Amino acid sequence: MNAMVPATDPLQQSGTWTSGRMVDICVAMVTTLILLLIIVRVSLGTFGLEDSLIAAIAALVLASPSLMLRLGMPQDSAAAVFVVLGVAAAAGTAWAQGGISGTGATWLPIAPLLFSIFGSERTTAVVGIICLCAVQILYWGQYLGLAPPVSALSPAQALANFMSVIILCVVVGVNHARTRASAQRREEESRETLRVIAEESGAALVVVQDGRVRFLNQRARALILPGISEPLGLPVAAVLPASLIDQTVDDLSGADRPLVRDGQVQGWFEVVRRPIRFLGQAATLLSAWDTSERRRLESDRVRAQARMDEARRLEQLGLLAGGVAHDFNNLLAAILANAEFLADDVESPAQREMISDITVAGRQASELVAQLLAFAGRGAAARRLIDVRQIAEEAVRIQRGAARQRGIAVQLESTAEALLVSTDGAQLGQVFANLISNAVKASAAGQTVSVRLASGQLTGLALESARLRYLDPGPCVLIEVRDEGAGMSATQVDRIFDPFYTTRVDGRGLGLAAVQGILQRLGGALLIDSTAGEGSCFTVALAAATSAEAAADASTDRGSGEAPLASDPAAGWILVLDDEPLVRTQVVRVLTRAGFEAQPAATLGEAQALVARSRPSLAIIDYLMPELTGDVALAQLRRDDPALPAILMSGYIRPDAQTAISLFDDRLPKPFSLDDLLAKVRAHRRPAPETSAVSP
Questions:
Q1: Of 198, 560, 602, 607, which residue is least crowded by CB atoms under 10 Å?
Q2: How many of the other CB atoms lie within 10 Å of CB of 422?
Q3: Domain containing 599: what range?
């Protein structure tokens, strides 16, 4: 509830005790005195025409300030008119009487009192000086014989003058008391208004005067150092944290300063210093605006913008990588298949060694394409429930050979229970391979690379420090890869996900970039702890499989115990639909050499024409073709043969093609080995139909 400014003083509500009213009272009193004087002098027989004129002039002079104030004239202007009229009246009276009267001389010290009622302090001071000088001139003029003598006062005149002085003193005293009380009320109201404004302000406000705290609001009290109960009057350096005031003494502009307590930054404040007047004296106002939320929002905005920029960059790179991967994998499929054919036909050791080099180079090229796709986040993930230990054991077994040649040991530590996650086993294996390979290459002979698996709970606090965050807090499987190598600086850690950035001469700079793409696609987090000269530790967190996922996987395993289909080559012909001639021809060649009957088709129309003659036992279909995708082609073929088994064959599948993949019985990624092709064909081919031959 908002505080309210105190109501106006009752005297001000009924009418202000103004100088005009005070002059009215004085005029009434002095007029009464004049009438009293006239009555006294008439009774004594001393009142004549001269006295009547003097009394009229005195009444006019005294009434003039009240009249002028009532007409709206400023106080100083009314006072100036009063001075002019008073001097003129005194001069005229003195001329008429042949000298200065005792009454006129008596009013010289009384005049400043009258002026203090309706005049300003400056006017009263000027009149007081003039009257003092006039009194001194009269005294010394009479003493030296240079001025005419002042006429003596009669007892009645002396009594009237004395009563005038008493009345004026009372009026002046009352007026001074009223003025002082009004000033105090205004000061209290100003303090209360300041307090209300300060409390309603969103800033912490501190008024500093002579280096000490003179005022602070409740928000500022929340910032004072511990152990201080009453900060008013204490030095500002003993009240506020030094981190907030160190740079505000000579800096009038706002600056964000940290609030540091116990060595920890607990917030950020924009501190502004401004000179002000406080209780009539120079002071400094320190304003501290809490900018912690603004900085957090700005940081979130910058991170969100960075993610958007990264997403756009990956999208553009992904489009390029997808097209390159599709065409490049088609070429690699033909190269590797022909190399395997030649390996079976040649007998020369030298030729076999050359063929082996071709195969190794082709596999490395295939891995490079896979890493490029993983970095770009373009590969599709075939999720299933797997035990992380199995993937880790296989990755460690493969990497130990290369590590042993460098004199480096690779150790695997794991818990006894199964560590189940729903993920793509091949892509997770690539994460293991890249992290372990990097750790081995960063280590020196005699050092150890440790791979540790455990289950745990990923908290929101831990996610805040993660370099990659693509999952929510909760139960997880932790994969830790630690080395004792050279470690990395903070600058190097900031760049490790940049493509083609590497700290090694023999590196390609795609390993961790691929890990980023895979974790983004699979949903995971990556924490990095690395210090130059002290080694590095990479921790991958994957969401642990739920009990429902484990139960569904167990049910699938129990339902897959059927006997394998016949693998007799005479069981029926196989359709190979691919727009790439090299791949299409090579697959048909492999199947024919293995004893199967295979028919190639470059378009959906050719495939439909073949299927119209007789039902195939299996269809092997490419995914990306000029006119349509593989899932569309399969849907067309299954219109007439809903039970047609099919294998998806492609070097690149879009990430959003999970529905398309699910239509096929299996997937054969390019490039593939002959053994993989034949194994999948034997696993999914159905028994031969009554008519299997296809007439040419």
A1: 560
A2: 20
A3: 564-684
Number of compact structural domains in the chain:
5
Q: Quick check: is 52 in a domain?
A: yes
List the one residue out of 12, 336, 18, 27 whose CA is nearest residue 186.
12
Cα–Cα distance list, 209 to 224, 276, 277, 333, 350 (Å): 17, 10, 10, 83, 95
| Beta-sheet pairing, 281-290 with 264-278 | antiparallel
Could you tell me the two tokens for 487? 């470690």
Q: How confident is the model at residue 478 (pLDDT cuts 50, 70, 90)?
A: very high
Residue 594, in any domain of the structure: yes
Domain closes at, from 232, 265, 290: 290
Residue 421 phi, psi (nearest 5): -140, 155
Same domain, 166 and 258: no
pLDDT-based confidence at residue 599 (cuts at 50, 70, 90): very high
The reply to whether 373 falls in a domain is: no
In the block, tokens 């008391």 appear at 177
Task: Quote the CA–CA distance of 553 and 521 in Å, as a whole number.
Answer: 21
Contact 193, 271 (CB under 8 A): no
Give the tens place of pLDDT for each residue, 294-314.
888 888 888 778 777 766 766
Q: What is this structure's pTM?
A: 0.41
- Torsion, CA 21, CA 23, CA 29, CA 32, rounded to 10: -110
Q: Is the confidence at residue 561, as pLDDT, over 50?
A: no
Q: Is residue 530 situated within a structural domain? A: yes
Query: What are the pLDDT digits (tens) for 524-556?
Result: 888 888 888 888 999 999 998 876 666 655 544
Do 570 and 553 fall within a single domain? no
417-426 pLDDT, tens digit per residue, is 888 998 888 7
Residue where a domain stops, chosen among 341, 365, 389? 365
Burial 110-139 (b: 16+ CB within 10 A, else e): bbbbbbbbbbeeebbebbbeebeebeeebe
Residues 613 and 643 in one domain: yes
- Pairwise pLDDT comparison (687 vs 382), residue with the higher score: 687
Highest mean pLDDT: which range of 151-165, 257-271, 529-543: 529-543
Q: Are residues 399 and 507 in the same domain?
A: yes
Which residues fall within 8 angstroms of residue 625, CB to CB, at 6 or more apart?
A: 577, 578, 579, 603, 633
